[in-house]
């Protein structure tokens, strides 16, 4: 049986044909990779003594925090931590 270059449904005929693009480097599916990466990130944070805090803010405050963080060339998380540390130092 001759193979046609346009026929991509018969995968076994094209098993060894090299395709352009980046080779697959992780055997896990992307969804599982994200879970593993998140779990590892949480372990690193815990080892560094970091705790997770979540809260909701208005879109205006969110944008203001983003703008201020960009102006100071730091992450939004670092900015919020700095603001909280300064505020707690004043009150205590």
Structure description:
The protein has 92 residues and is an all-alpha fold. It has helices at 30-47, 59-72, 76-91. The chain is elongated. The model has no long low-confidence stretch (mean pLDDT 85).
| Large-scale geometry | elongated
Helical content class: 40-55%
**pLDDT < 50 runs, ≥5 residues:** none
Main sheet summary: none
Class inferred from helices and paired strands = mainly alpha
Based on CA atoms alone, the radius of gyration comes out at 24 Å
Note the run of SSEs as H and E. HHH
Summarize model confidence as the mean pLDDT. 85
Distance N to C terminus: 83 Å
Organism: Pseudoalteromonas qingdaonensis
Protein name: LexA regulated protein
Pfam families: RHH_1
């Amino acid at each position: 049986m001759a193979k046609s270059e346009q026929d991509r449904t018969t995968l076994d005929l094209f098993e060894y044909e090299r395709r352009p693009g980046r080779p697959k480097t992780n055997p896990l599916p992307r969804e599982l990779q994200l879970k593993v990466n998140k779990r590892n990130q949480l372990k690193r944070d815990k080892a560094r003594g970091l705790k997770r805090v979540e809260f909701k803010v208005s879109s205006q405050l969110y944008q203001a925090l983003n703008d201020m963080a960009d102006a100071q060339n730091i992450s939004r998380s670092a900015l919020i931590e700095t603001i909280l540390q300064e505020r707690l130092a004043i009150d205590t």
